[in-house]
Specification:
Beta-galactosidase, Chain A, domain 5; 9-stranded antiparallel beta sheet; 45% strand; binds 6-O-phosphono-beta-D-glucopyranose
Length: 292
């Protein structure tokens, strides 16, 4: 089946007023578009990658790079990549295979409250027999739940992150609250420390906080706060590539670091999940916004 036929099939199968399917921008990536009483949003089958979440009357909470390619097998830069079933650069491909695979849309439900829930699924046999599903609810908040089932006969050490790129007005004026007191591993300096209550950005940042606490992103330029709630997430990653790394990344504009920050619900490195045969694990991130 070609992509055009897939779109026709999706539009037929999941007929509901709040949901339509089309290609994302100029790409050939089949994408579900949501428009309901709470928000507008978009999620493509490539990576089960959420590309947009615009609560009513707001700017998009998510940032997608103007330089991003939307061409498999390249990962999309921005939105919500799902890092799975490992986190980090090793082994290749970095952050795992899920973000560069086409997932299947299993279900789309308009909820009684007017929100919409879409469920995507992907089954792999390499590096292990695993099934992952991503359930995303577009409502007054955006909730993403990533559930992994171990279909194999041995345990699997699962690394994962919901790697959300948030749009901010100006990174140098953006503050992160909520992680104070957590142990912080700075991946750039390789130093560990206790995190301060408030964190501001002055340089490249790649921090892993051993914390599942709720994070507030304070954005005085866009005059909003973004609340990031997490469940079953032992780590929180905070990342901004800053100047030199932005220039090095091919699918990212040199100046785009000003307008984004990643805050990620994660279980990574020492906190990977030891998943027994037949066992299931879910990682959840919920994001919402209010005026500052
Ligand atoms: C973050 C990592 O989660 O993702 C960073 O902590 C990494 O180290 C960043 O640079 C982006 O990764 P990628 O593979 O999308 O370029």
């Amino acid at each position: 089946m070609n992509e055009q036929e897939l779109l026709l099939q999706l539009n037929e199968k999941f007929k509901q007023p709040s949901l339509t399917f089309g290609f994302w921008k100029d790409s050939r990536l089949p994408t579900a578009y949501i428009a309901n009483r709470f928000c507008r949003g978009a999620v493509t089958l490539y990576g089960a990658h959420v590309l947009s979440y615009i609560p009513d009357g707001q700017k998009d909470l998510l940032m997608v790079s103007e330089k991003s390619l939307f061409e498999p097998p390249i990962g999309i830069r921005g939105g919500i990549p799902v890092c799975w079933p490992w986190f980090g650069p090793d082994p290749a491909p970095p952050h795992g295979i899920a973000r560069i695979q086409f997932w299947e849309l299993k279900n789309a439900v308009s909820q009684p409250d007017g929100s919409d829930t879409l469920t995507f699924e992907l089954t792999v046999t390499d590096p292990h027999e695993l099934t992952v599903s991503l359930e995303v609810n577009f409502g007054a908040a955006l909730t993403v739940a990533v559930t992994t089932v171990n279909n194999g006969k041995t345990s699997y050490l699962l690394g994962e992150a919901i790697h959300t790129y948030f749009k901010v007005g100006e990174i140098e004026k953006t503050l992160i609250r909520g992680l104070g007191g957590a142990t912080l591993d700075n991946r750039l300096t390789k130093q560990s420390s206790i995190a301060p209550d408030v964190f501001g950005f002055q340089e490249e940042t790649d921090n892993i906080y051993h914390s599942d606490a709720t994070v507030m992103i304070e954005d005085p330029v866009l005059k909003r706060k973004i609340k990031v709630e997490k469940q079953f997430s032992r780590d929180t990653v905070v990342w901004n590539p800053w100047i030199a790394k932005s220039q090095k990344m091919e699918n990212f504009g040199d100046e785009e670091y000003h307008g984004m920050v990643c805050v990620e619900a994660a279980n990574c490195f020492g906190h990977r999940v030891d998943l027994a045969p037949g066992a299931k694990h879910t990682l959840i991130q919920k994001i919402s916004t209010s005026a500052l």
